[in-house]
């Protein structure tokens, strides 16, 4: 089995070829590019396929991060995964950035109890979700003001995970200072979580219509110019 895994939801442009039956990464690339996912993603995919000695005809499915994260990056990854899936008639699974971080944390850290994954969302917001020590979701992912996030932590929370964890006003230990798990963690997250390959933004887009430049509507009694 060969699953192509894509992540463009944050500052990384990543892909790997994963064998879920053997729980093995056959080849992987993770580039920290900031922006420009649309221009770089298929080159990263080509590098991974070449390293693994595989072609698109060898794929049995796809996995893609659906957010929350960068609006543009999320759209790039989801569109690419959908396009390949349609062309090859393959299933595609979406996993969230929060879930990928939860999987990485449970694989790398001795977790003593429930923990919170916190990602910086920009515009003064944090994305948060709680997981059990075994990595199971305990609530829904949600966005909140960063200066209010500490009030939303579970009383039994034992660990903070993600790139917004260090900024919390608490003495809880922190780990995995990233906005998304490694591409290997994304691949393994699909064994525990499964979503439709549709963007998960959790907040409104930054871009707003330029209403100041809108032309006035013609009244019904006026003739068109």
TrEMBL record:
<dbReference type="GO" id="GO:0005829">
    <property type="term" value="C:cytosol"/>
</dbReference>
<dbReference type="InterPro" id="IPR017861">
    <property type="entry name" value="KAE1/TsaD"/>
</dbReference>
<dbReference type="InterPro" id="IPR000905">
    <property type="entry name" value="Gcp-like_dom"/>
</dbReference>
<dbReference type="GO" id="GO:0002949">
    <property type="term" value="P:tRNA threonylcarbamoyladenosine modification"/>
</dbReference>
<dbReference type="InterPro" id="IPR043129">
    <property type="entry name" value="ATPase_NBD"/>
</dbReference>
<keyword id="KW-0408">Iron</keyword>
<dbReference type="GO" id="GO:0046872">
    <property type="term" value="F:metal ion binding"/>
</dbReference>
<dbReference type="InterPro" id="IPR022496">
    <property type="entry name" value="T6A_TsaB"/>
</dbReference>
<keyword id="KW-0819">tRNA processing</keyword>
<dbReference type="Pfam" id="PF00814">
    <property type="entry name" value="TsaD"/>
</dbReference>
<protein>
    <recommendedName>
        <fullName>N(6)-L-threonylcarbamoyladenine synthase</fullName>
        <ecNumber>2.3.1.234</ecNumber>
    </recommendedName>
</protein>
<feature type="domain" description="Gcp-like">
    <location>
        <begin position="32"/>
        <end position="153"/>
    </location>
</feature>
<dbReference type="GO" id="GO:0061711">
    <property type="term" value="F:tRNA N(6)-L-threonylcarbamoyladenine synthase activity"/>
</dbReference>
<keyword id="KW-0479">Metal-binding</keyword>
<keyword id="KW-0808">Transferase</keyword>
<keyword id="KW-0012">Acyltransferase</keyword>
């Amino acid at each position: 089995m060969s699953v192509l895994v894509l992540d463009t939801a944050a500052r990384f442009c990543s892909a790997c070829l994963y064998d879920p039956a053997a729980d093995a990464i056959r080849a992987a690339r993770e580039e920290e590019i900031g922006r420009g996912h649309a221009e770089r993603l298929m080159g990263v995919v080509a590098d991974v396929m070449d390293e693994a000695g595989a072609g698109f005809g060898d794929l049995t499915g796809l996995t893609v991060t659906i957010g929350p994260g960068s609006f543009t990056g999320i759209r790039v990854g989801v569109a690419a995964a959908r396009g390949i899936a349609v062309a090859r008639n393959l299933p595609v699974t979406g996993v969230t950035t929060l879930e990928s971080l939860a999987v990485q944390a449970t694989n790398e850290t001795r977790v003593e109890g429930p923990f919170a994954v916190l990602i910086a969302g920009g515009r003064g917001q944090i994305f948060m979700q709680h997981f059990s020590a075994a990595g199971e979701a305990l609530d829904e992912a949600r966005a909140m003001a960063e200066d209010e996030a500490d009030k939303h932590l579970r009383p039994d929370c034992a660990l903070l995970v993600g790139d917004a964890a260090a900024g919390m006003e608490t003495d809880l230990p922190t780990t995995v200072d990233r906005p998304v798990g490694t591409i290997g963690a994304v691949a393994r997250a699909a064994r525990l979580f499964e979503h439709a390959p549709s963007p998960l933004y959790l907040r409104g887009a930054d871009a707003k219509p330029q209403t100041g430049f809108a032309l006035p509507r013609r009244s019904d009694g006026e003739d068109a110019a």
